[in-house]
Amino acid sequence: MRLLPILALLTAMLASLPAWAGPPLNVASYNLRLNTPDDGPNVWAQRVEAVKALIRYHEFDLFGTQEGQPEQIRDLEALSEFEHVGVGRDDGRDAGEHSSIFYRRARFQRLAHGDFWLSETPDRPSKGWDARCCNRLASWVRLQERRGGQRLLVVSVHFDHEGPIARRESAQLLLRWLAEQRRQHPGDHVIALGDFNSTPDTVQIQAMRGQLRDARLVSLTPPYGPPASFNDFKFGSAPELLIDYIFLSPRIRVLKYAVLTDSNGQRYPSDHFPVLARLQLD
């Protein structure tokens, strides 16, 4: 048996394997619901352990959050396998809701991170356009996989819930920012996720879909779970609004997509279901 030609063939075959041939990546967007006593039996103290259990059971590798207040983000730091980035929307440090991003420390090395506001003055805490009650924030991180070296840019956003102009303009601001990032780092994979407070028929979601791929629409297997993500803590009622999304650049395959309806007894861990996509970086 002539081993040398066989070894040469095997070497050539291994060399031709694509760089992405590694483990899939579980990415999620999860609006945590802020910590408020107005929620009665659904207050954060009654939900936090269920949130942590859900994240671990479904083996999130990377997830963006919305509405997390400082104490909620600190509670999630108990998930010691994760590191996180993000600031408070009210002062750019700790105050107010966060759009933090958590990622597995064993899998990713952080290269850079930052934040910008969804407003006409994105470099400082501010309200934008017709938003009335709240500053709105985007947090981002650039990561590199420790094995394989794949780089990805992840941004977590929370669009305004009252101002239709603010939602439209926030999408345009986000897309301009992403376009500039892709010019500077053309090899990066891009994941933009969050609570867009917008249904699929809106101008802003159509704009996002025009530049990026909606994970739900390109999943290689049929989407799992309901076609909506906002449950309003109404256990047993069919959710009606899809407002949470995961958008992707090309060269990312969506193996599976799900809206996770896990409950703790007859209570949901949040008033939003997390949306989860199992991805393969090409």
Outline of this structure?
The protein is α+β, with helices and mostly antiparallel strands. Helix content is 24%, strand content 27%.
- Supply the CATH class: Alpha Beta
Cα-based radius of gyration, to the nearest Å = 20 Å
Please report which band the strand proportion falls in: under 5%, 5-15%, 15-25%, 25-35%, 35-45% or over 45%. 25-35%
Biggest sheet character: 6 strands, mixed
- CATH homologous superfamily descriptor: Endonuclease/exonuclease/phosphatase
β-strand number: 12
> What number is the mean pLDDT?
93
Q: Which features does this protein show?
A:
single chain; 282 residues; alpha+beta; Deoxyribonuclease I, Chain A; six-stranded mixed beta sheet; 12 strands; 24% helix; globular; disordered N terminus; Endo/exonu/phosph_ase_sf; CCR4/nocturin_mRNA_transcr; Endo/exonuclease/phosphatase; endonuclease; hydrolase
Secondary-structure map with pairings?
Layout: H1 3-15, E1 25-31, H2 44-57, E2 62-66, H3 70-76, E3 82-85, E4 101-104, E5 108-117, E6 137-145, E7 151-158, H4 164-184, E8 189-195, H5 203-211, E9 213-214, H6 215-218, E10 244-248, E11 252-259, E12 275-281
Parallel strand pairs: 1-2, 7-8
Antiparallel strand pairs: 1-12, 2-4, 3-4, 5-6, 6-7, 8-10, 9-10, 11-12
Helix pairs in contact: 4-5
